[in-house]
Amino acid sequence: MSGLLVITAMLVVLIPTTSSDALRHAETWDRSGEYHWICPGPDGSRNAELLTMEIPVGDFQRSMMRDPPRTSTFFTSAPVHLIDSSDPYVLAVAEHIRSCTEGCSDLSRATAALWFVQTAILYTSDDALYGTEDRWASPLETLYLGRGDCEDTSVLLCSLLGALGYGCVLMDFDGHEGVGLEMDGRLLYCETASDITSNPGQKDPSRWGGYVVWREGDSFGPGGAFASALFAWRELTDRVAGAL
Prior knowledge:
- By secondary structure, this protein is α+β, with helices and mostly antiparallel strands.
- The chain has helices spanning 19-26, 57-65, 88-100, 106-120, 126-130, 139-145, 150-163, 225-243, and strands spanning 34-40, 46-52, 122-123, 147-148, 167-172, 177-183, 186-190, 211-215.
- It has a single domain, classed as Roll (C8orf32 fold).
- The protein has eight helices and eight strands; from the N terminus they run αββαααβααβαββββα.
- Helix 4 (106-120) packs antiparallel against helix 7 (150-163).
């Protein structure tokens, strides 16, 4: 039709599983309360460490039944509201990391936090863990299960780095989450969706695109929700512009 541009849009709505269904599915997984991980030493060594930490099942169940957004929505496109550096189990892990890294530099200690997430938490899909295509987990839930996908492990690492006193950001790459460690005026990318160790800054995500959607100390409201809403709007406008 001359002079008339017709745009057809299709809205796809993902209906998430209920919290109770996700809980029932998650409780089928065995867990030991032991976290075996690799810690960098001050001399460049790689040391096998063990943290034993029992998280009561009641704490896990109550966390699972909380209903903040657990999947992407227009106003919450990334799990920034689940980052929690004050969670007591996050603080316990952070203290364990401190004790294992005495005499280490700040970069080595931050690397230890990344290696803990990479080697103590097994990468596992949401479908396997919760029986649904997408569900975001709190740090407590990821630690309880000892498993998680890229969103879960990135939320956990941001929480740990904050508890250790390091600046960090959560980065969204349109379907993938990662963490940036802010240190010495640099932003060092940390890939959490891995069961093998890599150092901050070892991997370069620049070719993927993506945005910073949360920064430690964000003042945009609870959990950086406003920053996430801005990201959702920017992502939507970018996609619409690309479709025209």
